[in-house]
Amino acid sequence: MAENTLHIKNMVCPRCISAVQNTLTELNITFDKIELGQVSLKETIPSEQRMELSHKLASQGFELLESVKSSLISSIKSLIIAQIHHSEKALSENFSSYIANQLNHEYSYLSRLFSGVEGITIEKFIAQQKIEKVKELLFYNELNLSEIAFQMQYSSVAYLSTQFKKETGMTPTAFRQMKKPGHKRIDGI
User: In what order do the strands lie in the sheet with 38-41?
Assistant: First the structure.
């Protein structure tokens, strides 16, 4: 890992980038670029300042990663989350090729590493993230199930429904019904 690159776990959205940017500015740490899960510094920071940064990030729910393996796992998650939740353009290749190409590692190595540390496969993580996005799309009620299935690259509405029920325990239609006025909400959804 380059000394002037910081890898930060749980940095998964534009608001996260803004929060990290504010923390860096507050600590007078100069940087070139901030991306999901990664910050390129202008210069190496002293260990005391690194520890203070680590503490401040932790208080905001982030984790400053120190090892190459941890940063690879964080990068895998960031790539998946960015593609599923924040990209307007559909992926033109499968996730395994995309991840391997972006991180310059064999997919089999990345897959073993991810499973060994996270306790789930990359494929399961992708499925979970896709269902989270489907829940968001259902909540806003702007697309029908066919449109959602197409946008999320499911082969059919039936397959989307099967995956959704497997992850959430309910059908997409039942989930959408929960949002309607007068319906009691289930905590956390």
Answer: 31-35, 38-41, 5-9, 63-65
Angle (deg, nearest 10), helices 122-140 and 95-103: 110
**Structure tokens given for 39:** 């910050």
Nearest to 17 by CA among 2, 38, 45, 44: 38
0.85 exceeded by pTM? no
Residue whose structure tokens are 């325990």: 169
pLDDT in tens, 85-129: 988 888 889 999 999 999 999 999 999 988 877 889 999 999 999
Given a contact cutoff of 8 angstroms between Cβ atoms, the answer to whether 114 and 151 are in contact is no
186 vs 15: CA distance, rounded Å: 26
Reading phi first (left if > 0) and then psi (alpha if -120 to 50, else beta), residue 61 is in left
Give the count of beta carbons closer than 10 Å to the beta carbon of residue 6.
27
Mean pLDDT over the full length of the chain = 88
**Has residue 1 got a pLDDT over 50?**
no
149 touches 160 (CB < 8 A): yes
